[in-house]
Amino acid sequence: MTRPLRIAIVGAGPSGMYAADALTTQAEIPVSVDVLDALPVPFGLVRYGVAPDHLSIRSVRDTLDRILDTPGVRFLGNVTVGVDIDVDQLRTFYDAIIFTYGAARDRRLGIAGEDLDGSIAATDFVAWYTGHPAADRATFERLLPTSHAAVVVGVGNVAVDVTRVLAKSAAELGHTDMPQHVLSTLADHQISDIHVLGRRGPVQATFTTKELRELGELADADVIVDPAEVLLDAASEEAVARDKALARNLAVIRQWAEREPAGRSRRIHLRFLTRPVELLGEGRVAEVEVEQTALDGSGGVTGTGRRSRITADLVVRSVGYRGVALPGLPFDDRGSVIPHQDGRVLADGEVQPGWYVAGWIKRGPTGIIGTNKKDAAATVASLLQDAPTLPLAPAAAPEQVDGWLADRGVSVVTTAGWRAIDAAERALGAQAGRDRTTIHALPDLLAAAR
Ligand SMILES: Cc1cc2nc3c(=O)[nH]c(=O)nc-3n(C[C@H](O)[C@H](O)[C@H](O)COP(=O)(O)OP(=O)(O)OC[C@H]3O[C@@H](n4cnc5c(N)ncnc54)[C@H](O)[C@@H]3O)c2cc1C
Questions:
Q1: How far is Cα 377 from Cα 358, in angstroms, rounded to an integer?
Q2: In whole angstroms, what is the distance from residue 400 CA to residue 223 CA?
Q3: Cβ-contact 274, 255 below 8 angstroms
Q4: φ and ψ at 228, to 5 degrees?
Q5: How confident is the model at residue 296 (pLDDT cuts 50, 70, 90)?
Q6: Ligand 1: lining residues by beta carbon, under 6 Å
Q7: CA 370–ligand 1 middle distance (angstroms)
Q8: What are the residue boundaries of the structural domains of the chain, listed by start?
Q9: Which residues contact 251 (CB under 8 A, 6 or more apart)?
Q10: What is the mean pLDDT of the chain?
Q11: 149 in helix, strand or coil?
């Protein structure tokens, strides 16, 4: 081949950035890589998911950012594939495309009252407090100051993040990069009770011990656990004996169950074997009807029919993320992922030459940031293996895609534009004595990029 292989990566989250890294740190096949993202800023859920008070995890951004300095890697932000350019058009510019566009939609509970005012998806709450440009600011600025008790449905790490953000004092959040309006709204809210509901037992909850422990270390919140809900069946006992992490979680929860509350102004009620069956209220949610469940001996639960109600005017549904289909691409609706074989996209069981997939849209929303590195490297290995036989794109020169997008009025944010946003956010943060303040509004991000 006389020119480098031209590769588009759709999504600049960790999996996209790690794919770019794997492509450009190999020496056998010359490549040039464009990383496209719908947003004018890179790093996906590392910026718009990872909790802003977890500074060391958020600093993964610095590692990912260095990948953008690699010769042959370009960032093309503010380009939504499927809207600004479709997949077939992309094929005319690139010899291969790696889809790494994530799985950032919420899963539904599927219960009555789910769409009442005051019932929100954790995805939307997280988007708001991290300053995502598409976040519905008005809704949170209306709901939070008028809420007194919240129910968080789910006991994974995202549910724990959401609970911690609601339970922390203003002083505990002041050092984060949250937008100023978010900090102000959180500082003013009057939520005194947060009920966190897990439908299974403490051993089946998916939070990690570090995240769990943090709940017990908050300045102004007690964690309350009912000993009657810390139940283990034979399957749970076996799981605890096998898995040290589960044993550590259980020890933390048992300690809370034995401890007297210290009379702090907020209370986190960590509930197990409790599932929501209906959200009730006139227009806005006012109560959550819950059913007690019982462990079935094999890791699952059955309903007991015993119901009660929790008073709550805010419900945050945190029962998982899911991917969505991109027009023109095959999609597995059941798994909410793109079907693949070793990272090669499959349509009706057939490999689609030149199409690849990595990250959450390949595996589903599981694993930590680092999981995406290995995953992206495996997909890139398949791509490099296929390189000699890939059908080459007719218009594979950077200026051709740039010209095509410019002709359609797409205002692409390049690496230089992102760096200008980065500098503007750091400058904004410095004014408030913080490392960074996230710029949230799209027009402001685009203005900073210019
Ligand atoms: C709330 C939350 C907290 C988390 N906290 C942690 C943590 O503390 N530690 C940890 O290790 N992991 C954490 N994770 C998991 C981690 O964020 C994921 O493993 C990782 O971000 C998945 O990477 P990805 O690149 O596949 O997807 P994403 O990070 O979602 O990136 C996908 C990118 O694709 C872009 N995109 C989407 N559609 C299009 C389109 N049509 N055209 C162009 N671009 C598009 C998006 O804008 C985004 O930038 C957390 C996840 C969530 C949701």
A1: 9
A2: 58
A3: no
A4: -65, -20
A5: confident
A6: 10-16, 36-39, 44-46, 49-50, 54, 57, 80-82, 100-102, 104, 126, 158, 161, 321, 326, 359-360, 367-369, 372
A7: 12
A8: 5-104+323-413, 106-321
A9: none
A10: 95
A11: strand
* Token code pair at residue 147: 């809420």
CATH topology classification for 5-104+323-413: Rossmann fold (3.40.50)
Distance of alpha carbon 201 from alpha carbon 203, whole angstroms: 5
Closest residue by Cα to residue 194 from 311, 67, 281, 37: 311
User: What token pair was written down for 192?
Assistant: 């005194």
357-402 confidence digits (pLDDT tens): 999 999 999 989 999 999 999 999 999 999 999 999 988 888 899 9
| pLDDT of residue 28 exceeding 80 | yes
Q: Which of 207, 27, 195, 13 is nearest to 104 (CA)?
A: 13
**What CA–CA distance (Å, rounded) separates 286 from 291?**
17
Q: Which of 101, 132, 331, 413 to mutate to test the pocket of ligand 1 (most atoms within 8 A of CB)?
A: 101
The region that residue 271 occupies, defined by phi over 0 for left and psi between -120 and 50 for alpha, beta otherwise, is beta
Architecture in CATH of 106-321:
3-Layer(bba) Sandwich (3.50)
Partners of residue 151 on adjacent β-strands: 195, 315
Under the banding of pLDDT at 50, 70 and 90, the label for residue 1 is: low
> Is 215 strand, coil or helix?
helix
> Tens of pLDDT along 323-355?
999 999 999 999 999 999 999 999 999 999 999
